[in-house]
Structure formats: structure tokens, C-alpha cells
Amino acid sequence: MKCTLKRTGEVLAQEVEVANTYFTRLKGLMFRRGMKEDTGLLLDPCPQIHTCFMRFAIDAIFLDKNGEVLYVAEQMKPWRFGRFVRGSRYTLELPGGLLKGRVKKGDQVILS
User: Where are the beta strands (DSSP E) in the chain?
Assistant: First the structure.
């Protein structure tokens, strides 16, 4: 699956892995050594994340059921807990530092 920012047409991740079961969401990115620049992990459903047992920082985009951005967390370091995002259906986790302020609340993200 590919992830594109509708406003600019920019591809945020060429390969997005989906975690949509209890165990795949629970494991998430824990214990991995890192992420390739063009990859992401889509957690479904997911209104809150943590970075416990992770070895690297991530950027996270919280999306509603229509792909509208509700909240963006950039450079979330290991061993942190994110806020609960009301209305969030999906969370897209990307390599830390990838977003650099390019995605804002209200933007539309297209998953195809």
C-alpha cells in the first residue's frame, strides 16, 4: 500500500505495512532496528501509540476514517507515550524526521 499527501501529491511512504489484528498492533515497531525511509506502518484501529521497546524515533500521523489528519507527532523518541487522539481510526507510523512540518491537521492522506 502507498501513502500520498493529497494537498501536494507527495508520496510519504511507498510501502505501508498494515497492522490490523490485536497482536500485530501490539507488536507494532517494537524490537525492530529501524525503518527504511520509504516505508510505514498503518495501525488500524489506533487512537494512541507508545514507543516502548523501540530503538529509534518515529513520526506519527493520526487519521480519521476518511483519511483526514487529526494530529501529527514528529520525532517521537523511544520510551514515550503519545496522547489519545479522539476520533482517530488509523495511525500511520513513519521514520522519525521524515515529515519535517509538511503534514498539518486537516490535510487529507490517501492510502492506495
Answer: 3-5, 10-13, 15-19, 39-43, 58-63, 69-76, 90-95, 109-111
Question: pLDDT tens for residues 83-103?
Answer: 999 999 999 999 999 999 999
Model-level pTM? 0.95
Is 16 in a helix, a strand, or coil?
strand
Q: How far apart are CA 58 and CA 37, in angstroms?
A: 11
Q: Which of 112, 76, 106, 98 is nearest to 12 (CA)?
A: 98
- Distant-in-sequence, close-in-space partners of 81: CB < 8 Å, separation ≥ 6: 48, 50, 51, 52
Which residue is it, cell 494537498? Answer: 7
